[in-house]
Amino acid sequence: MNKLIKNNLILIKKSKFLTFLYEIDNLEEIKEIINNLKIEHKKATHICYAYKIGVNAKYFDDGEPAGTAGKPIFNVIEKKNLNNVLIIVIRYFGGIKLGAGGLFRAYSNCASEILK
Q1: pLDDT of the residue at 10
Q2: Where are the alpha helices (DSSP H) in 4-46?
Q3: Angle at 77 between CA 75 and CA 80, to 5 degrees
Q4: 70 closest CA partner among 28, 106, 37
Q5: How many helices (H) and strands (E) does the chain have?
Q6: pLDDT at 2 over 60
Q7: CA 92 → CA 12, 22, 51, distances in Å?
């Protein structure tokens, strides 16, 4: 059974980044969690995530430029040597483009902050 451990909100140049940390046991839980968040956050611009369950690992950018959202989240999971974890960052675009470097830093920061 999935367990929401923590959530967080960070504002960066008028964009809202909502971060969710879950303890997970299987891949089916991930689909359920993401589908529920998509329903709850219909107006979100991007729902990006990364997870690791044993040898199963994945990250997803959801329309952000390739490698600027899911990969930085996944890098934090790997750096902390975590397992059975799902981190989701939901972005509500605030009208100011952050650029590839800014996005990478924003998503990495969100993942790091949620683990503190």
Answers
A1: 85
A2: 27-40
A3: 105
A4: 106
A5: 3, 5
A6: no
A7: 10, 20, 21
